[in-house]
Amino acid sequence: MNNAMLNISHLTEFLTNLPLLQMPSSLLQSALNEGLRIARTQTGLIAFFDYEEGREAGDDIQLLRQFFALEAARSRAAYNRDHPNGNGTTSQDNPLTLWLPRIPTIKSMNTQQGPRRVLVLPMQNPNTNQANGFIMLLLPLAEKEAGTSDLNINAEELSALISFCRAVSNAWYSLRYLTNVSRRLEDLVLLNEIATAITSNRNLADLLQQIMTTTNQLLRSGACVLLLMDQQSDELVYQMPAGENGETREIRQPAGSGIPGYVARLGEPVIVNDVARDPRFTSYLDEAMGFKTRNVMCAPLIAHETIIGVLAVMNKLDKGAYNSNDMALLTTLAAQGAVAIENAQLYAELSEERDRLIAKEEDVRRDLGRDLHDGPAQVVSGIAMRLAFIKKLLENEPERVMEKLDEAEKVALTAAKDIRTMMFGLRPLMLETKGLIPTLEAYVEKLQTDPWKTHLEVSGFGEDKNNYLRLEHNIEATVFIIIQEAVNNIRKHAAPRNVWIALDHSKESTTVMVRDDGKGFDSRAVTDRYDERGSFGLLNMRERARLIGASYDLFSQPGQGTTILLTIHHGNQRVLGDLNMRKLTTGSLSASSLISPTSSSSLSS
């Protein structure tokens, strides 16, 4: 170099070693050091606008900061003047970078010590050729004293500096790409670990917390919430921790309200990096949580094409913004979480159902023990006493033996009848040998001793009483148990004059109805309080119906009797049964429109 303003003698060695740097911080520091060496100065700084950190050096660094702030302010003012209707920056036209020259340039600045020169080296994205970073170097005062303050960069120096800028930019974006790929691989490994962990968790409360914690860590956010959809109230529900003992406080938000509600309605993920400018944003959750949301990203939780909730993260750490890579991770976590939540809910339902069945079995055992003690056991004990008395009669009054044997025989026959009746109630043998209809005919005949009249009407099962149409064995057994349970409830609570049992069979379905004209009750209120009231007759019937995939509907009003309707859809019992269960739990009582107490009176015989 003739003017010796810049020192580019060792640039080739730097460019050779540059690709070996594997850390962004190392690359920034190395590039800054080389820039300082080239400019023969000690003050400089380097920064890329897509990275939160930069590097700087030198005692006069404050001068460079002031220079950058002044140039950026001028550039922003010019941008706003040229774009009066604009709402800020775009990826292709950032006012913070518009002041950067296209090639290495020396600019002047005025300071208290007099004019200084700043060497500006622009860094361009090799994919877009847009300026996205810079190195600024404060040229030494010695330059002015030597009379070189007005010198320009000569052709050799310009070529070398352009190569330097291009090499640093290429190395930077290559390293950023490799870093992103490495991070994505780490995220995929973590995703696999998360999927394994959450799918093995069957405790719903623990699972929800686990999903939120892992999502928050993986997406490096300030907070994460998981809101489940309450289909009955059409609300999103968040169980917010409220104590050290695992206590929670329920926060409800109307579905369709706020950004999570928007996602729940449309079923599409959303990124909002400035909630203050989004009209969909509401501060409902912020106020409840004592939080200030800056940006938010939401994804729907979808199971079997049904939206069951929303997973949301807020406030990207380091004041960052959410991007498409973050959304890909969130949607993957949401998909895995939805499956795990559904499995946990099903597991909880099965556990509750198991507990109810165990409790019911204990009730049956207790009732059976009581009935055996109060009935057959007492009768058999009486027979034993009579036989002991007859033995004494053989010695003292043999002429009375036959009379007492006849009495003992009658008592024994009564005991046998009671035992057969109990066996019939528990598991009638006739149900297995002859089927449902003959068993119901026998059952109704036994009910004629009750203080009401029982009517049975059957259609669609054939005309041959010795060869009625048979259903699957488990369906027949369940239907008979449900009818028994309904009659037992009538016996305990209804005080009717008439009870109707009707069965209708068609190619599509089998319908079973049990109706009485007794006291009746508020069926909606009782249905809404199933969980509070615990295991009892109505709940048992509903659960048994669900086990065979049947719909169970209930209609009753005080003073108007009660109607129970069971519908078994052939060929698709499980799916239709589950759908009707959802209707029942939301208060749908279709029996009121299908069979009313007045319309079913024709079933009386």
> Spatial order of the strands in the main sheet?
8-7-6-11-10-9
Number of helices: 19
User: Could you say what the CATH architecture of the largest domain is?
Assistant: 2-Layer Sandwich
Sheet of most strands: 6 strands, antiparallel
**Helix vs. strand class:** alpha+beta
Helix and strand topology:
Blueprint: H1 11-17, H2 24-39, E1 44-48, E2 54-57, H3 61-82, E3 105-111, E4 114-124, E5 131-138, H4 142-145, H5 155-199, H6 204-218, E6 221-230, E7 235-241, E8 248-254, H7 258-266, E9 270-272, H8 284-289, E10 296-303, E11 306-316, H9 324-374, H10 376-396, H11 401-426, H12 429-433, H13 436-447, E12 453-459, H14 473-494, E13 498-505, E14 509-516, H15 523-528, H16 530-533, H17 537-547, E15 551-556, E16 562-569, H18 573-585, H19 591-594
Parallel strand pairs: 12-13
Antiparallel strand pairs: 1-2, 1-5, 3-4, 4-5, 6-7, 6-11, 7-8, 9-10, 10-11, 13-14, 14-16, 15-16
Helix pairs in contact: 2-5, 5-6, 5-9, 6-9, 10-11, 14-17, 17-18
Could you write a compact summary of the structure shown?
Helix content is 49%, strand content 20%. The chain is α+β, with helices and mostly antiparallel strands and 605 residues long.
Account of the 3D structure:
The chain has 605 residues and is α+β, with helices and mostly antiparallel strands. It has helices at residues 11-17, 24-39, 61-82, 142-145, 155-199, 204-218, 258-266, 284-289, 324-374, 376-396, 401-426, 429-433, 436-447, 473-494, 523-528, 530-533, 537-547, 573-585, 591-594, and strands at residues 44-48, 54-57, 105-111, 114-124, 131-138, 221-230, 235-241, 248-254, 270-272, 296-303, 306-316, 453-459, 498-505, 509-516, 551-556, 562-569. The chain folds into three domains: 11-179, Beta-Lactamase; 201-341, GAF domain (Beta-Lactamase); 427-603, Heat Shock Protein 90, CATH 3.30.565. It starts with 10 loop residues before the first helix and ends in an 11-residue tail after the last helix. The radius of gyration is 42 Å and the shape is rod-shaped. The strands form three sheets. A six-stranded antiparallel beta sheet has the order 8-7-6-11-10-9, with helices on both faces. A five-stranded antiparallel beta sheet has the order 2-1-5-4-3, sandwiched between helices. The protein is built from 19 helices and 16 strands. Helix 5 runs antiparallel to helix 6 (204-218), helix 5 (155-199) packs parallel to helix 9 and helix 6 (204-218) runs antiparallel to helix 9.
